[in-house]
């Protein structure tokens, strides 16, 4: 931002406001000081922009910023947000990105996609799954990556993508929660990919090259050899990466050349088989494939020097070298035959390999079409001489093992910081690379099935062809081309994984979305992620300890599939939400394609391994929830927020269709708070009560009013809103805060009641505190505002909750271990009195309190039947409560009632007739109040003035009126002027007497709140009635229903 316009320190009373009040003519800046006026006027002279001179201080001219906007440069991977890093890079001169589509995207994708699976497992997959099954697997996996690439291209071309690749795209499209979760999954996938590549290199080293099979003269099993050699290679690779990534990048082209040469050698070998098939004999006993080691001639006996002699094969299965030796039953009953391992592309072997041949662990590799004599009752011997299946194979296993061979499509987007034109190179390069590799894979499936014998294809480790790579037997000019090429290819891919994974973790750590990963954002002085590399090597060692390429491959498949699924989800959401910022240059995308890609990814996850899929989802969910609750809040304009807005709009439109059913009714509370002079909340316990009531969830709006005008008091309103939000956070109230600026508090409160909420999501209940100092003359306006709130909520058919003595209410940290919540059900108000205790008891503060319901029976009521009916009603409501019916018989109105009513009326009339000033009024009220505390004759109504009149309404109340005062004003005011006031006071006193008797020790008393007076002259009396009704009770919640049923007996 440019510097803001400077205001005068004196404000409206400053020097610029003196005189006629107009700014000087020479100054184009209304609020500027005279010292800077000349400079600014000279600065903009001759620019023909006088109309916008005031805005130029905080809004730069387009001509001055256009160059920097157009020449935006990408940031290094893992750096801060590009908006924040602009000021930090001012002094450094960065090298301009120079890579094009071929070198920056296409070739890196080719190198990452082609890998260990192609050379070590592709032929085995074709042999086990058949040409049809394998082609379907390849097509499904390649389709998934192609659809993902289309979605990724749309995201990558929707604006500049700083370096960070897939993590950046997902996090900025789906938000920090999804971005962090999927980023970690992608990191784990890349790390386990490094372990898979290292295991592939070790398998080539031990099985094919066989340079060393012993370590310290101690023989190891195959798995232990894999673990030891794998750890050594991992340590070496991690050291190379630590020393310098530049060496890895320099060797990348060498490793890529090895991959391409190996693939070309395979295609050359296929062409050669059509002309001259290579000689790779496979020895078959009966229909079982024999391990080629241990014998030189594939025959039982040979003719030599006019005699028949036995071969090494005979000595393996027989107990001596003589013809009369005892031999293995199966060996004796079956012939030995030799078949051609690679009959050639024109041999017609394709028809035999079209369908799958799935094996259980330990099964023999048998040649289709050959018969064998086998006695099922004879136990199998010499099984170690045959080629056996090392694992149980099935279709889903093949999918899990194969899928890693199509990963690596993100290699181009990960290099976006080095591309000249990332928006053009990423789509073209990635889609071209996937097309190329998919063509190679699909053609390889068909060619392998057409050239190689089925038993050789199913021979995973080439035991029947002298330990050669099966794909190597097909290559031309020599199998060693494949062995050496694939070894360097796997080593290079492993180095790339150990290089990319730590940088991805560093980028996540520096985004600060996962607090406990912050340490991994640090590194060496040149930015190399040292700590992230150590963690990556440690996780990679877990894959090495597994020591099985077939077991590691499905693990990384899960993490990559989850990453690809969310890339598709991001594109689909952005497309469907139609956010204004969604304008990708890549036009060949559609939300349906993205959803198809997402569905394929999810399906493949469970096809590969349902338990690995669940584990991966649990990991992602845990990270998501952790970021949601503990991570830093980021606003990246993500699609999830767009979903929230769309869902909220849809829900609000649905709510507009009609009022909610009684079963769905819940209190949507508007909490009316008052603020002090410092804009701090005066009744914080109101929010504690709100939190305890929110077991019913629903809407909560916390509102207050600020007196003034919007222009002059906006800062105060903001301060008040901050106070509300801070208190809501402290009290753990989830909802919205709203501050209204109005000319007076009465109108502000009215505005809140009228306009709070939106559409169908409006409040139906108002919570306001009792004005405890209403008798004080200075608070006269406050209690009248309170009565206006009662009137307005009644007119709006809203429920009203008025807690009395709010300071005595428990905080959220308190616990009641026993006690009662008493409900005094006087009149039916829709069931609010029943619902509120139930909601309160859902909260831990009130959970152990028991509920009691009291109702009042009149003279003509059958109290026994009332109790039975109430018990039945509560049973149908599924509410547990004790029930008691209190009988209130008609009784004479006591002298105390008359006297209390009389004092109330006389006080009002005195103040009205005498027109006292404020100070005089205070003294008069005090004198009356003090006198009323004297002795009162409660039992002799004859001494009181008993004449009645209803000509004038009542006024402001006082507590008691002594006889002396009555005599003093007997000529004017002694008669009770309104008999209805006597009846109301009588009811209030009788009810208070009964409530005090039954509920004095209750933790909370809920009772019906009487309606407000119809005319404003009776407001004082109304407050006095409520005061008498609740006198002596510690915690009282006055409840006034909204005129509709809120509780039902139906399910």
TrEMBL record:
<dbReference type="InterPro" id="IPR018491">
    <property type="entry name" value="SLC12_C"/>
</dbReference>
<dbReference type="InterPro" id="IPR004841">
    <property type="entry name" value="AA-permease/SLC12A_dom"/>
</dbReference>
<dbReference type="GO" id="GO:1990573">
    <property type="term" value="P:potassium ion import across plasma membrane"/>
</dbReference>
<keyword id="KW-1133">Transmembrane helix</keyword>
<feature type="compositionally biased region" description="Polar residues">
    <location>
        <begin position="15"/>
        <end position="36"/>
    </location>
</feature>
<dbReference type="Pfam" id="PF00324">
    <property type="entry name" value="AA_permease"/>
</dbReference>
<feature type="transmembrane region" description="Helical">
    <location>
        <begin position="477"/>
        <end position="495"/>
    </location>
</feature>
<keyword id="KW-0406">Ion transport</keyword>
<protein>
    <recommendedName>
        <fullName>Solute carrier family 12 member 5b</fullName>
    </recommendedName>
</protein>
<feature type="domain" description="Amino acid permease/ SLC12A">
    <location>
        <begin position="388"/>
        <end position="670"/>
    </location>
</feature>
<feature type="transmembrane region" description="Helical">
    <location>
        <begin position="431"/>
        <end position="457"/>
    </location>
</feature>
<feature type="domain" description="SLC12A transporter C-terminal">
    <location>
        <begin position="816"/>
        <end position="1051"/>
    </location>
</feature>
<comment type="similarity">
    <text>Belongs to the SLC12A transporter family. K/Cl co-transporter subfamily.</text>
</comment>
<dbReference type="Pfam" id="PF03522">
    <property type="entry name" value="SLC12"/>
</dbReference>
<feature type="region of interest" description="Disordered">
    <location>
        <begin position="1"/>
        <end position="50"/>
    </location>
</feature>
<dbReference type="GO" id="GO:0006884">
    <property type="term" value="P:cell volume homeostasis"/>
</dbReference>
<keyword id="KW-0472">Membrane</keyword>
<keyword id="KW-0769">Symport</keyword>
<keyword id="KW-0812">Transmembrane</keyword>
<feature type="transmembrane region" description="Helical">
    <location>
        <begin position="391"/>
        <end position="411"/>
    </location>
</feature>
<keyword id="KW-0813">Transport</keyword>
<dbReference type="GO" id="GO:0015379">
    <property type="term" value="F:potassium:chloride symporter activity"/>
</dbReference>
<dbReference type="InterPro" id="IPR000076">
    <property type="entry name" value="KCL_cotranspt"/>
</dbReference>
<dbReference type="GO" id="GO:0055064">
    <property type="term" value="P:chloride ion homeostasis"/>
</dbReference>
<feature type="transmembrane region" description="Helical">
    <location>
        <begin position="252"/>
        <end position="271"/>
    </location>
</feature>
<feature type="transmembrane region" description="Helical">
    <location>
        <begin position="228"/>
        <end position="245"/>
    </location>
</feature>
<dbReference type="GO" id="GO:0007268">
    <property type="term" value="P:chemical synaptic transmission"/>
</dbReference>
<keyword id="KW-0325">Glycoprotein</keyword>
<feature type="region of interest" description="Disordered">
    <location>
        <begin position="927"/>
        <end position="961"/>
    </location>
</feature>
<feature type="transmembrane region" description="Helical">
    <location>
        <begin position="531"/>
        <end position="549"/>
    </location>
</feature>
<feature type="compositionally biased region" description="Polar residues">
    <location>
        <begin position="927"/>
        <end position="948"/>
    </location>
</feature>
<keyword id="KW-0868">Chloride</keyword>
<dbReference type="GO" id="GO:0045202">
    <property type="term" value="C:synapse"/>
</dbReference>
<feature type="transmembrane region" description="Helical">
    <location>
        <begin position="588"/>
        <end position="613"/>
    </location>
</feature>
<keyword id="KW-0630">Potassium</keyword>
<keyword id="KW-0633">Potassium transport</keyword>
<dbReference type="InterPro" id="IPR004842">
    <property type="entry name" value="SLC12A_fam"/>
</dbReference>
<feature type="domain" description="SLC12A transporter C-terminal">
    <location>
        <begin position="684"/>
        <end position="802"/>
    </location>
</feature>
<feature type="transmembrane region" description="Helical">
    <location>
        <begin position="178"/>
        <end position="198"/>
    </location>
</feature>
<keyword id="KW-0597">Phosphoprotein</keyword>
<keyword id="KW-1003">Cell membrane</keyword>
<feature type="region of interest" description="Disordered">
    <location>
        <begin position="74"/>
        <end position="93"/>
    </location>
</feature>
């Amino acid at each position: 931002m440019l510097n803001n316009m400077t205001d005068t320190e004196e404000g409206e009373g400053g020097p610029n406001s003196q005189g006629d009040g107009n700014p000087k003519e020479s100054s184009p800046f209304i609020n500027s000081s005279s010292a800077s006026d000349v400079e600014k006027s000279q600065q903009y002279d001759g620019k023909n922009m006088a109309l916008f001179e005031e805005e130029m201080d905080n809004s730069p001219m387009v001509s001055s910023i256009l160059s920097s906007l157009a020449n935006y440069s990408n940031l290094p991977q893992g750096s801060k947000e590009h908006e924040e890093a602009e000021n930090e890079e001012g002094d450094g001169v960065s090298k301009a990105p120079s890579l094009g589509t071929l070198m920056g995207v296409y070739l890196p994708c080719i190198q990452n996609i082609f890998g260990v699976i192609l050379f070590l497992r592709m032929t085995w997959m074709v042999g086990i799954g058949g040409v049809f099954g394998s082609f379907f697997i390849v097509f499904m996996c390649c389709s998934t990556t192609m659809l993902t690439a289309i979605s990724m291209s749309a995201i990558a071309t929707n604006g500049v993508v700083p370096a960070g690749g897939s993590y950046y795209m997902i996090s900025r499209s789906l938000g920090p929660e999804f971005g962090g979760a999927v980023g970690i999954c992608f990191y784990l996938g890349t790390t386990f990919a490094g372990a898979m590549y290292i295991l592939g290199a070790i398998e080539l080293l031990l099985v094919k090259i066989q340079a060393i099979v012993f370590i310290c003269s101690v023989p190891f099993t195959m798995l232990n050899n894999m673990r030891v050699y794998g750890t050594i290679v991992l340590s070496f690779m991690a050291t190379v990466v630590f020393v310098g990534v530049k060496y890895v990048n320099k060797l990348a082209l060498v490793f890529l050349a090895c991959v391409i040469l190996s693939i070309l050698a395979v295609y050359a070998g296929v062409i050669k088989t059509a002309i001259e098939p290579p000689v790779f004999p496979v020895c078959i006993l009966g229909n079982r494939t024999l391990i080629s080691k241990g014998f030189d001639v594939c025959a039982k006996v040979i003719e030599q020097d006019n005699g028949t002699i036995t071969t090494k094969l005979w000595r393996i299965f027989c107990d001596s070298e003589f013809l009369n030796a005892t031999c293995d039953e199966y060996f004796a009953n079956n012939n030995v035959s030799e078949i051609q391992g690679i009959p050639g592309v024109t041999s017609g072997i394709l028809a035999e390999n079209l369908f799958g041949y799935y094996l259980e662990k330990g099964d023999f590799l048998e040649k289709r079409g050959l018969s064998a004599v086998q006695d099922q009752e004879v136990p199998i011997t010499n099984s170690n001489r045959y080629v056996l299946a090392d694992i149980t194979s099935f279709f889903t296993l093949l999918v899990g093992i194969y899928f890693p061979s199509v990963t690596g499509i993100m290699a181009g987007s990960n290099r976006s910081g080095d591309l000249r034109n990332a928006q053009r190179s990423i789509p073209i390069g990635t889609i071209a690379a996937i097309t190329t590799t998919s063509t190679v894979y699909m053609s390889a499936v068909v060619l392998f099935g057409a050239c190689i014998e089925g038993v050789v294809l199913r021979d995973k480790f080439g035991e029947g062809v002298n330990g050669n790579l099966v794909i190597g037997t097909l290559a031309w000019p020599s199998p060693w081309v494949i062995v050496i090429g694939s070894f360097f290819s796997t080593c290079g891919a492993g180095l790339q994984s150990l290089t990319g994974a730590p940088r991805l973790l560093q980028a996540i750590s520096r985004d600060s979305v996962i607090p406990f990963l912050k340490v991994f954002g640090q590194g060496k002085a040149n930015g190399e992620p040292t700590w992230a590399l150590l963690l990556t090597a440690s996780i990679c060692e877990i894959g090495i300890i597994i020591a099985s390429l077939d077991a590691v491959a499905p693990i990384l498949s899960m993490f990559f599939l989850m990453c690809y699924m969310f890339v598709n989800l991001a594109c689909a959401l952005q497309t469907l939400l139609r956010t204004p910022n969604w304008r990708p240059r890549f036009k060949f995308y559609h939300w349906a394609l993205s959803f198809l890609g997402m569905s394929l990814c999810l399906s493949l996850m469970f096809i590969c391994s349902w338990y690995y899929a669940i584990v991966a989802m649990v990991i992602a969910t845990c990270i998501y929830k952790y970021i949601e609750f503990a991570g830093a809040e980021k606003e990246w304009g993500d699609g999830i927020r767009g979903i929230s807005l769309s869902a909220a709009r849809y829900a609000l439109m649905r709510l507009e269709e009609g009022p909610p059913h009684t079963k769905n009714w819940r209190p949507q509370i508007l909490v009316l708070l008052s603020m002090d002079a410092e804009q701090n909340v005066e009744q914080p316990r109101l929010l504690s009560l709100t939190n305890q009531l929110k077991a019913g969830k629903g809407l909560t709006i916390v509102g207050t009013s600020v007196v003034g005008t919007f222009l002059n008091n906006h800062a105060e309103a903001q301060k008040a809103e901050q106070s509300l939000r801070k208190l809501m956070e402290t009290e753990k109230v989830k909802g919205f805060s709203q501050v209204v600026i109005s000319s007076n508090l009465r109108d502000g409160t009215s505005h809140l009641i009228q306009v709070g909420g939106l559409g169908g999501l409006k409040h139906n209940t108002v919570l306001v505190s009792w004005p405890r100092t209403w008798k004080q003359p200075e608070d006269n306006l406050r209690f009248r505002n309170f009565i206006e709130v009662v009137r307005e909520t009644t007119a709006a058919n809203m429920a009203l909750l008025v807690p009395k003595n709010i300071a005595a209410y428990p905080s959220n940290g308190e616990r009641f271990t026993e006690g009662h919540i008493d409900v005094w059900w006087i009149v039916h108000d829709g069931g609010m009195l029943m619902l509120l205790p139930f909601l309160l008891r859902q909260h831990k503060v009130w959970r152990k309190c028991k509920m009691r319901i009291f109702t009042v029976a009149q003279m003509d009521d059958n109290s026994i039947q009332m109790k039975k009916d109430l018990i039945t009603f509560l049973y149908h409501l599924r509410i547990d409560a004790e029930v008691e019916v209190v009988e209130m018989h008609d009784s004479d109105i006591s002298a105390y009632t008359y006297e209390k009513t009389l004092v109330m009326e006389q006080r009002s009339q005195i103040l009205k007739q005498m027109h006292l000033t404020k100070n005089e009024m205070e003294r008069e009220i005090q004198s009356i109040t003090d006198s009323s505390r004297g002795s009162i004759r409660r039992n002799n109504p004859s001494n009181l003035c008993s004449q009645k009149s209803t000509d004038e309404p009542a006024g402001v109340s006082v507590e008691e009126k002594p006889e002396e005062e009555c005599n003093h004003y007997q000529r004017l005011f002694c008669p009770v002027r309104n008999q209805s006031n006597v009846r109301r006071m009588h009811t209030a006193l009788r009810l208070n007497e009964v409530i005090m008797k039954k509920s004095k020790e209750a933790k909370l008393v809920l009772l019906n709140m009487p309606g407000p007076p119809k005319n404003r002259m009776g407001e004082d009396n109304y407050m006095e009635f409520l005061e008498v009704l609740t006198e002596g009770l510690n915690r009282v919640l006055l409840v006034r229903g909204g005129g509709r049923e809120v509780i039902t007996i139906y399910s």
